Amino acid sequence: MSRKRRMFDIDMPDEAVESFPAGKVEAEEKDVRRGPMATAIAETAESSRERSRVEAEIRAENDALAQEHVRLKRAGLITDLIDLDAIDALKLTRDRAPGEDEELKELIQSIREIGLSNPIRVEPAAGGRYELIQGWRRLSAYRALLVETGDVAAWGRIPAGIAARGDELEQLYRRMVDENMVRKDISFAEMAQLAIRYAADPQTAEGDPEKAVAILFRSAGYQKRSYIRNFIRLMEALGDSLLHASQIPRALGLALAQKLDEIPAAAPAIRAELDGWDARGVSDELDVLRRYAGQGALAEGTPPEPKSAPAPAAKARTTFQIQRPQGSAKCTAANGRLEVRLPRDFSAVDRRKLEAAVRTMLESLE
Known about the structure:
Blueprint (H helix, E strand, L loop, with lengths): L13 H6 L7 H6 L3 H39 L4 E5 L3 E2 L13 H13 L5 E5 L5 E5 L1 H14 L2 H4 L1 E6 L6 H13 L6 H13 L8 H8 L5 H17 L11 H13 L3 H9 L7 H11 L24 E8 L2 E8 L2 E5 L9 H15 L1
Parallel strand pairs: 2-4, 3-5
Antiparallel strand pairs: 1-5, 3-4, 6-7, 7-8
Helix pairs in contact: 4-5, 8-9, 8-10, 9-10, 10-11, 12-13
């Protein structure tokens, strides 16, 4: 018995026909329908490429920032607050004369009222410390304010430009000199004293103060350098006995230097008159110097009568160097003074040992 087929008419919507195409699936549909493992691998690769690109950009930016930091540091434009106790002022011999500094008082008052407008300049040293390059008076003002107020939060740290190491000592001296040359109050005596100390510094190559003038005061004119050299002779002969050397006028200093060259006995006579007279003022000291320079009561060309017997005429100064394991020791011998400069901290030597060594040396010279 045969079975009859039944036919049914089914109406299919057009959307369904388009949604289920017959034949091969297009490539883009394959991508959409790929498995979860393939999708994860693709996403990981893309993420890795993006991370590498970002890291390369960060490295390039860091390199640029590092180069800029080095440039700014070399120029002393990197500024930070530095503890006063971490700053040493030993590398350069300052050109400020000892004694009361009226301008320092004005600077202290200005900093107290409006703050510090110009940071000091330092360079990194060993052990986390810093060496002062510029700004001795500003540093002194901060230290004075700290002692006066005891306010560590306000005055215990000072703004400082941190320079990179590497500048030669001669260049550091030149910067200090040029900075102070623009100040109207720096005297010929102070400039001469700086040249003397520069020559005595064991770390400098030049041991003759008069030759050091050409190094330190290269920016000054020939005539000014000549005046400084005259004051060098004056300071070498009388420096330790003068309380107000910075107040000596140029004309008086030049006349007195010439007089000391002409009359060797004048120097010990001036020292004898000034030594022990600690209460003298500026005018008192200048009056004495004017007399010996022939600008006062004494007749020009007549050697003054000293209060005590003058020392035998000798060379104004003798200098020599001795090579030691610590470096070159610069020795300066003058009338009433024997100085040894060596890159070593003698304060760290036991006092009894140091005293015995000096006593032995002095006894060997008798």
